[in-house]
Amino acid sequence: MTRVVAGALLLASAAAVPGLPLALRLAVGVVAIAVLSFAARRRQETLRATGASIVAEPTGLSRTSAEGTKPIVDWTAPFGVTLLASYGRPHGLLAFTTPTQTRYIPARIDGRSEADDELFARIAVLADLDLVDGITHDAALTADDAAAVVRHAEEHDRASLGRVYLSDGRGAPIALDRATLSIASRTFDLTSHLEWRALMFHESTGQAAALYQATWIRQNGAEVVLVAPMPASIVPREPNAHREASGRLGRALTRDLRLLQSPAEPPPARDVRVAIDRPFMMAVRRVLDEAPLASRVALPAPREAAAQRDSII
Fold first, then answer.
1. Residue 241 sits in the same domain as residue 144
2. Model-level pTM?
3. Judgement on whether residues 242 and 287 belong to the same structural domain of the protein
4. What residue numbers bound the domain in which 33 lies?
5. How many domains does the chain have?
6. What is the pLDDT of residues 55-93, one digit of tens each?
7. Percent of the chain surpassing pLDDT 90
8. Among 11, 121, 196, 229, which residue carries the largest CB count within 10 Å?
């Protein structure tokens, strides 16, 4: 607004000052037009950056913009909230998952208060850099507003923080909370003894070879291996990234590095594999690691080579 006023005054002075040389008058006019043009561009950028809003209503959360209103979550339906973040990055993604969809809200996590730092640490999961850096230039909630949204969700369902709803590659439901991991018709009780381990494996498809991350889980004879592509990069190369990962949120993300470490194994049998969205693999390992009776087991003794496998699922 100040730039618009300045530009208008310059134009007025160029026309109103008597005896002003023509060349100087033209120069003042050009400067005034440049100021007005810059102000107009800044105004358009501001409108683009603030043209979308997150609206909290008694029925749920929605996103409003010039294109209309899109629902994010309905308070009457099951939902979960997770923060996908990375070392030293000022942005993260609030992931609202339901049995039918996942909605992401870009949020700034720098400059957060001590209370907000503790809140974010409770739901944070270490995410790969491609995912987090991909939203750097998008309009994002401030840290205060992001924390307010999380607290608003917690008021409607305290158990929603850290809960995740997904589906596998065939559309079968996956649900995760502090007590239960459900995969289609199979249910793992996280309050009872179970075994799990992290692993990775290579597999070839035609002329291409891919690297996968996986989490093996077994309980009472039921066995499953959650599988997702290995992220290209998860730890920033910048020398100051670890220094900036401070507070409880930074410590939570650092702890996930231990959960990321996994030995290479032969590809698991296809009949026990379940595809999972890559950003949420760490959320599963975090809950397994915190389960009181869960045991993280070591790599088993080498077995005979399995039959040739050429498909991830």
1. no
2. 0.76
3. yes
4. 2-50
5. 3
6. 888 899 998 877 888 899 999 999 999 999 987 788 899
7. 53
8. 196
